[in-house]
Structures are given as structure tokens and as C-alpha cells.
Amino acid sequence: MVGIKSYGAYIPRYRMNHNTLFMAVAFLGSFPAPGENAVANHDEDTLTMAVAAGIDCLSGMKRELVDGLYLATTSQPYMVRQNSALVATALDLQSDIRTADFMGSTKSGTTALLSAMDTAKGETATNILVCASDCRLSKPGSPQESLYGDGAASLLVGNEDLIATFEGAYSVSYDFPDRWRASGEKFEHAWEDRFIRDSGYSQFIAEVISGLLKKYNLNIKDFARIVYPGLYAREHGAIAKRLGADPSQLQDTLLSTVGDTGSASPLMMLVAALEDAKPGDRILVVSFGDGGDAVSFQVTEKIKSAASRRAVKKHIASKKDLASYEKYLAFRNLAPMDLGMRGEISIKTPMSALFRERKVILSCRGSKCKKCGTPQYPYQRVCVNPDCGAIDRMEDYRFSDKNGVLFTYTGDNLAASIDPPSVYGVVDFEGGGRFWFDLTDCDLDSVKVGMPVEMTFRRRYVDESSGVHGYSWKAAPIRA
Amino acid sequence: MAEGIKDKIAIIGMGCTKFGELWDKSAEDLMVDSFKECMEDAGIEKKDIGAAWFGVHFEEQSVGKGATPLSLTLKLPFIPVTRTENFCATGTEAFRGACYGVASGAYDIALALGVEKLKDTGYGGLPGGPSLMGTKNALIMPKLTAPGAFAMMATRYFSVYGLNPEEGKSMLAKVSVKSHYNGARNPKAHLRREVTEEQIIKAPIIAWPLGLFDCCGVSDGSAAAIVTRADMAKKFRPDPIHVKALQIALSSGEELMYTKWDGAHVETTYRGGRQAYNEAGVKNPREEISMAEVHDCFSITEAVTMEDLQFSPRGKVKEDIEAGRFNHDGPQPIQPDGGLKCFGHPIGASGLRMLYEMYKQLQGKAQSPERQIKNPKLGLTHNLGGFPSMNIVSIAIIGL
């Protein structure tokens, strides 16, 4: 038997209130529905959110048990250089694992999940971490701008200690040209909304659900929760009605709180459903995009063991309004902002050094002296403890999962930043170790010496001239 | 048993250009200017120089690598020239090289010259880009600037000694008021305007809690020294100035990566100071050091340096600052020439600029009577290169 062992999610801290959006783009004839979207900070993207969701999912678990990582997205930073391998490195997973990117469609989240189920049934790998994440760029003033939100979900798939068992699936595939983005393009194109709604959304979802019910001889009323994306609010309810479901069975679409998170959307809704699920509940998860997948689960007694996750609920509650639309444009590099000549200094990433130092840079690993027990970041060969000084007596030591307290900090207006002041400080880690890090997701006024912090994987820079997206770890106030 | 450098070396000539945003002067112009003054002061000819040491830090911004920029500019006749680079201690390192060269007996006379041309970058502050940790700099370090790195020490100092931001900023403002007073009276200084504590506190924040007037000038400039053996010095002039101590101390990594350092002082300054006092035979620095030019890249740096050099007891510098101890008319004048704060900070020249001021004061030759400190016996110079948690400190003590 295979199924879900654990769940996690990530929603960025910032929200774009639709009123803010309306004030900025109403002149274009764009009238967003009431609500807000989760928007990634300037240092977040698909991969950083996938890592954050993965950390949430794996909290309290041994990372060594993971032997595969499947990443689903439509907004991957790299076309060549495997995004899932980068996420796996940031998660400090073993290197003898299988990684794969599932891209190109908003149904890729459920497809990755199904592939993980198939993998877990076989003999080559049993514990597959599925991360679905999307941080889609939309044209200013476009309908997608208020529809799309940024977020990620993560599910650990395996064959024992399951919180929900995999009960079956049904898929349909159509070359449905509702939205498309060719290689090298920045923004999506979309066909008329009414076409998408009538020929795609309402058809495919009904088709996969009916197909699944028939295949497994189930009734729609058998499901405690039915999860499918809510691209069109009215049609969302109408589909259920036509299938004979009660509106109370429908899982909240997160549309007014987070937005449509693309490939992550059905999995984030699944995570939210699991947060409230009782043993015995059947959950039906459906994706939409070039057809769709329907996946059926049944919740087990072990569901209670996953309760300590931040998941969807705690992340939704932990938020801050983005002050202005212009700030959003700056974060997404949609309007050229002057960072001064200091900001024009370009960074050429030495890739060979990045690979050599990947454990330090991407996995946030340092070393711990086997002689005196002092943790130190980055990795040292000579112990930094002045009373020890042992040479080559180190073992690897992971700092990404250690919290710390802020030893000191500043808010720097001279450093080039798209979100000045640039806040950074020195972190003293619980259990030992000290280093300086950028701080993120915080406001200078709320930063204090002694403040507890946690580590978060973030994008450091994008070097347009070489196409390199650079990542490293930052410190942030403990989120929830 | 090492004897140390005390009284083996004498300075017989020094030169220092005006510091500032010298748009019409190249690094080469500045080198020639400081060299000219230095040679005239020493009363020697170029053929008398046995070897030279050349200090420049951001060579990519100005003169390029190696020591040939000095030999080519000054047309030095095929003598040994060595380039030194050690962050803000670069100038003092050039001086140290020249002194050790002469002390070894290899040369009778040596030149040390430091220069920096910082104002060709197109923006304020020091040039950006990777520095402290090489390639790792851009990959794991926060986007640090110098004001930010030292601001973190101010945050820490306020926290450790229980100062609220108003008390802390008021203490730091008084440091800058004093340096502006001194700089305003020095014709060679970069910033020559007196400012009030209120102006300083209300100035824009550069890196919290440091504001504009907590930061030193970023300047172009050059300074130079000619040194010889102490037993030869009187042949050149009646008032040579003797080297009493030359020390440097470098961070071991424990400040940044171990968790014992309190972040409210600079360990290298304390250790380097102790070594220098030992070498010079100074027992009570608060009483015996007549005056000092310390590395006041930021007001907080000067404040903690007073404690690290044992001019003030730990955590008590605020009382000394408020009592005016370090003012020009106080018992232990600090930054009589305006300091990095107002004289300016062309990195490779700064250490030699400090020595220039101490040298002139010891000879009683400050440009004007109001600048002259009365009967100084020992002058100390101090450079701090890098950041409080990761740095190089150089200390020199000179006297009659």
C-alpha cells in the first residue's frame, strides 16, 4: 500500500490586497474581485518556496529517508540545470536519490504526485518528496495578475506510516490551448476566458471526476472533501452541483486568500484538507491544465501525527500587506528601478566554486569539531575554538534546521537593494556557531538584539548577463 | 628573545597631500606631491633611497597591480620596491616594511608611500564588490557595506552597555563634533566645516544607527615617509622622530564564528595595543600616550578604540567623551588633524597620514599655533582594516 506520509506548505509573507491592485490598474479596465494574493518577496521564487514547503513537510523527520524528489512547476527558473536537483541540495537530501522536474502544465503537481505513488509501489525508491511550487509572472493589468498567487505544497509519498492511503486515479489529457508560453517568453498568453471556462474548466474536471467514480465504482457522496481549483467562482460550485455533490464537500479554493498557485494549487488545497481531516475521510483531488488528474485518498488514524506543520492555515494567518503596487513591480523587475551605480556591479558566479562549496552555499552546512564539539559555519578545517584548534577533526553539521538569536543587526541604506534598507545581522545558533547573514521578511523597526530567528533559503541575485539565479540562506524572524 | 623596533628607526622626512575629492588629481599626481614634500622635508636626494614600500588598497580603481606604479611614477632608479596591501592598515604596512628593511641593516634609507584614488568610482562610499572572503563573498556573505558592518558594532555596544538609541547616538555625535572642530582648522583636511550635535543626530541614516556624520570622508590622497637608522638620523635633521613600536594583529576567526566575542569591542585593537605598549615600554597608556590618530572610519570605531587602547575603562568611554577628554584642548587629544572623519580616508595613505600628523605635532610644527598640541611626548596611530568581526589592526607609537 502506498500513500502520503507527511504534508507541508509555504505561502509567502506578503499579500497584495486587490484594492491596491485596483488603484493601480483600474485605468486599464482591470477590476479584480475582492480579496488578496500571496506574493513572493523579492528574494523568493519557485525554488525557494519549494524548499520552504519541503522543510515544513520534513519537519521532525530524518532527511536521509528521502530517496527521491519530484518538483512540479510552470515557473522554473532554469530550462537547463535541473531545478529539482537544486531543491534537493538546498533541502540537504542525500545525493543517491532520484530527482525529476515536472513542468509545462498546471496539472504537473498531481502528475508528480501520481508518479511518486507509482514509484513508491516499485523497488527502486520508496520515499519520494513531491514539491509543487509556482511563482508566475503576469503582465501588469492582466486578469492573471489578480488571479495568480505564489505558494508551494509538499507531500512525502511512501509505503508505510501513511496518513492517507492512495486509493486510485484517473487522468485525461488534451492539448488545450487556454494558456501558453513559448520558450524564451516572459509572460503567458491566454485565449478568451469564456472559452477556457466552457470548453475546458467545466468539462475536464467533470470528466476526470466522473471517470474516477466509474472506474472505482464510487459515489461522489463518498468523499468528505472534494478538491479542485476554483478558477471561476460560480462555475466552481456549478460543477459540483452537476456531479451531485453537496457544496459543503468542496474544499476552499484559497482564491481570495492566496490566489491560484498553478501547479501547487490542488496540492495546497489537499494539504489544507488534510489539516482538518479525520480518520476514514475520503479526499478527491483534481487538477486542471491540459486535461487533468483525479486522485483519491483515504485518511488513516496516523493523521494526528502530522499536526505540528505550518501547512496552509498558519501560513495564511501570518501575513503582511505589500505597501504599494510599485513595490510589487520592483520586486518582479517589471519596472526598471535605479539602484545607483553600486547596484550595477555585476556578479559572475564561479560555477566550479559553487559546485565545490555547494554544501556550504546551498545546503547551509558547516562543520562540527569532533574534538571540542564546536559547530562552525562555513565549513572549517581548523577548529575556530581558540582553546582547541584541532585540524581535520571535523564532521558535517547542518545549520539550515537550527534556529538562532540575533546577536546584532543593522539596516543599511548604502547597500544596493530593491527593498532598502538592506537588513542584515549576526546570528548565534542554538547549539553553537555564529555567522552573519542577510535578514529577510522583516521590517527594521521590529528587529531587536536577541530576537529569535530561523534560516530560510532565498534567491540572492539574478545575473541577467549569464542567466544565473544565485541562492543562499538568510535569517528571518520565526514565522509562526 | 626578540628586541622589538624601539628606538632603532627614525623618521627624517614626511609628506602629505591635501585630502579630498580631488577631481583634477590622478593617483600619480598625488604620489608625486607627497613624495616631493617628503624629500624636501628630509633634505635628501632620490639616489639616497635604498628601497621603497608602496601601499595601495583598491589598486583596480586607480594605479593597477604591483609596485611598478611607484617606481615608474617617481622614476626610482632600479631599486627594490614592494607593494603592500592589508586593507586599511596598508599605509602602516608600507611604513612597517620600510622600518624593518632599514632595521635589518639591508638599507640605510627607505621610503614608504601610500596612495588611494577613490573618487573615480562614480558613487559615494567605498568601491563595492567582493572583498573579504574572495569568491565566497558574493555567494554567502550578506550584502555588507562598511557602514553596515560597523553599525552592527554600534547596535551591539548600545545593547551591551544598556544605552537607548538616543543616548548612544548622542555619545557618537560628540565624537564627530570634536573631529569636525579639528578638521575645520586644518587646511589639508577634506571636510572643513564645524557641525553641531543636533545636525549630526538629525542627518540621514546611512546604516542604522549610524548617520551621515558618523561616517568618515571617502577621499583621494597620498602620504609618504623617509626612515633611516636612529644613529644616522641627526645627520639629516636636528629633530628626527623615533619609532617606539610597530605592531599588527589580525582576527583569528573567533570573533565572527565562535560565540565568545561580545561584539562591542575590537579584539585585534586590544591585543595589538597591548603588544605595542609592551614594545614601547608604556605602562599606563591613558597617562603616557600624549595624543593619537586612531581609525575613526565611523564614530563608533573611535569610541570602542578608546576602550580597546585602554585610554578609557571598558564601557566608560561615554564619560570621557562627555568630559571632553579627547578634545583638542583635553588631556589626551584624539584626531587632532580631523581624523579619517574629516581629514579623509584614502585607504592606502591613511596610516602614513596619521604618522604625518603625529610627526609634525611631536616636532612642534603643526601648521598653526591653534593646532599645535603642547609638549607631546608619545603619539600613537591605529588602523583597523576590514570589519569589527574580521580585521587587521596596525598600531605605531612614535616619539622624540
- Give me the oligomer status: heterodimer
What is the C-level CATH assignment of the domain at 9-121 and 221-225 in chain B? Alpha Beta
Task: Count interface residues per chain for the largest interface.
Answer: A-B, 53 and 42 residues
Unreliable stretches of chain A:
none
Give the overall shape of chain B, derived from the CA principal axes: globular
In DSSP terms (H or I, runs of 4 or more residues), the helix count of chain B works out at 14
CATH superfamily of the largest domain in chain A: Thiolase/Chalcone synthase
CATH architecture of the domain at 9-121 and 221-225 in chain B: 3-Layer(aba) Sandwich
Question: Main sheet of chain A, how many strands, which sense, barrel?
Answer: 9 strands, mixed
- Helical percent range of chain A? 10-25%
What Rg of chain B, in angstroms, do the CA atoms define?
20 Å
Structural class determined from secondary elements of chain B: alpha/beta
* Arithmetic mean of pLDDT of chain A: 96
| CATH architecture annotation of the largest domain in chain A | 3-Layer(aba) Sandwich
Rg of chain A, rounded, reads 23 Å
What tags apply to this protein structure?
heterodimer; A: 2 domains; 5-stranded antiparallel beta sheet; 24% helix; globular; B: 400 residues; alpha/beta; Peroxisomal Thiolase, Chain A, domain 1; 9-stranded mixed beta sheet; 36% helix
Structure explained in plain terms:
- The complex is a heterodimer of chains A (480) and B (400).
- Chain A is an alpha+beta fold and 480 residues long.
- Helices cover 24% and strands 28% of the residues of chain A.
- Chain A has helices spanning 18-25, 46-58, 83-90, 108-121, 143-147, 193-215, 233-243, 265-275, 313-317, 325-331, 351-356, 358-361, and strands at 3-10, 14-17, 36-39, 68-73, 98-103, 128-134, 151-158, 164-173, 179-180, 189-190, 225-227, 282-286, 291-299, 320-321, 365-369, 375-376, 394-398, 404-412, 422-429, 434-438, 452-463, 468-477.
- The two termini of chain A are 34 Å apart.
- By secondary structure, chain B is of the alpha/beta class.
- Chain B has a domain at 9-121 and 221-225: Peroxisomal Thiolase, Chain A, domain 1 (3-Layer(aba) Sandwich).
- Chain B has 14 helices and eleven strands.
- In chain B, a hairpin with a 2-residue loop joins strand 10 and strand 11.
- In chain B, helix 1 crosses helix 2 (68-74) and helix 3 (90-103) crosses helix 14.
- Chain B starts with 8 loop residues before the first strand and ends with a strand.
- Chains A and B meet through strand 18, strand 19, strand 20 and strand 22 of A and helix 4, helix 5, strand 5 and helix 8 of B.
